[in-house]
Amino acid sequence: MQRFFTTTFRPFFLLTGAITAGAGGLAFLPEWTLKTIFQLDYVPAYTVLAQHWGAMVGLVGLAMLLAALRSEWRAPILVFVGLEKACMVLLVLLHWGEPASAGFVGGALMDALVSLYILGYFWSQQRR
To answer: How far apart are CA 1 and CA 99, in angstroms?
Structure first.
C-alpha cells in the first residue's frame, strides 16, 4: 500500500490540485465560470460570495499543488484539504435533488475521491 501512495501521490495531487485551483476562476470571472463550468444561473446579488468561494477553493488547489511538491508541508495541508473536501461532499449530499446542487455533483465526486485518497494515505503512513 505504501508503494502505491509513493508512486501516485505527486501526479494525483498535481492533477486534482490543478482542477481544484481552477475554481479560482470564480474569483475573476464569476458569471462565465458559473454558467460555463458549473452550469448554474448567475445571480448578480451573490457575486461577492461566488468570488470569495472561488478564491478560497482556488487557494486550496494551490495548497494541494504545494503538498505534491513539498513533502514536509504535506500532513497539515492534507488534514485541511481532506476536511474541506469532505464538507463539500456532505453539503452536496444534504442538498441532493435541489436544482443548484446539480452543478456541484462533478466536484463532489472528485472531492470524495480526494478525501478517500487522503484517508488511505494517512492509513498507509500509520502502517509503516
So the answer is: 40
